[in-house]
Automatic annotation (TrEMBL):
SUPFAM superfamilies: Nucleotidylyl transferase (SSF52374). This is Probable nicotinate-nucleotide adenylyltransferase. GO terms for biological process: NAD+ biosynthetic process. GO terms for molecular function: ATP binding; nicotinate-nucleotide adenylyltransferase activity. Belongs to the NadD family. Keywords: ATP-binding, NAD, Nucleotide-binding, Nucleotidyltransferase, Pyridine nucleotide biosynthesis, Transferase. The lineage of its organism: Bacteria, Pseudomonadati, Campylobacterota, Epsilonproteobacteria, Campylobacterales. It is an enzyme of class 2 (transferase). Residues 6-155 form the Cytidyltransferase-like domain. Catalyzes the reversible adenylation of nicotinate mononucleotide (NaMN) to nicotinic acid adenine dinucleotide (NaAD). Its EC number is 2.7.7.18. Coiled coil: none annotated. It comes from Sulfurimonas paralvinellae. InterPro entries: Cyt_trans-like (IPR004821), NadD/NMNAT (IPR005248), Rossmann-like_a/b/a_fold (IPR014729).
Amino acid sequence: MNGIALYGGSFDPPHLGHEAVVKALEKLDFIKKVIIMPTFLNPFKETFTAPAELRLKWLKCIFADDEKVQISSFEVEKKRKVPAVETVKAMLQKYDPIYFVIGADNLASLHKWYRYDELKELVTFIVASRNDIEIPPNFLKLQIGVDIASSDLRDNIDISKLPKKCAQEIAHYYKEHNAKQN
């Protein structure tokens, strides 16, 4: 049964690691569409460097020519922190099954997610590998071979780690922001 991959995140900034996850998802024969869902506010963070509307714009630019990818503004339009379970329930009205994509770095805190026990009954998790983090057998593993952290890029922007389509604009934004902070 073909399903959708729901790939949520901060994407602050979007980088080649995010792009690699999407490309790997597209190769899975049971995924008919990848829905990228930037958060308005991450439930575990208080602020972002780039505003939600700008991160949404960058994602639309990066994946504009990819027919299997849809960029969703669902969480951005809420203008608040949206728990994953709320997003999944809304998406289930249109799509089933849903494969919920997370980075391996999220595994350690997954049990802290709002209504995690309910969420895990609604989706199948796909975990994008990162470093040497072990992925439990009850999760599908997505090998991507790219290890880039948005948090590292925000402070020290490296254009070679950004998607080519919007690299200049993204790099300019973070350089300007960092200059104002110093």
